[in-house]
Fold each of these.
Amino acid sequence: MESFELDKTLWQKALGTPLILSQSGGLTSLALALPNGLRLPDDGFSVASSLEVFLVLSGEIQLGLEDGERTIGPGILTVLQAGEKHYARNAGSELAKLVQFTLPA
């Protein structure tokens, strides 16, 4: 078993780039802190290579998909299928914090 304290130090390490928390049996867990206005990737779309599950803990994320944008906030769980094109942008005024889990397709 592994557990992680989602404290200030962890979020500083995850600022602007995903921080891998754990990898086991094909499951990867990550933490990500997005400052206001930051978009990942900078331009275009990222393509999910596996099943991706996001849980926003604080802030607002504008999730861009091929068919438009959706705003997701605290407590919203989002599932992207492998091959789905997407981007994430902090659309709010505060630091957005989320955890992500990836699983083989």
Amino acid sequence: MLKAPPQKYIFATRELFEGWPLSDMEIVVDRRGKPAPDPYLAAAELIGVDPGDCVAIEDSPTGVASALASGCRTVAVPHVVAVVEQPGLVIRETLAGVGLADLF
């Protein structure tokens, strides 16, 4: 997890990926932070995958910019600030009841 969003999103995200071989890990990036792509690039490198094979779930324009710039598949669940539609971005009001296949 690059940033811990409100608890309701953490629970929704865990439910979304139930049954997947995930671990609880937090990425602390000593490079440029969001909106630069560095946090997502570092996370993908750490787990040994291409950023294009990752799904980033973000709640802000800054996070969305970071995720998209890294090449991650990006889903926005706006929280406080509206997120503008743009190419490569899926916007959802909530992740409740959403499965992984529903995101794309």
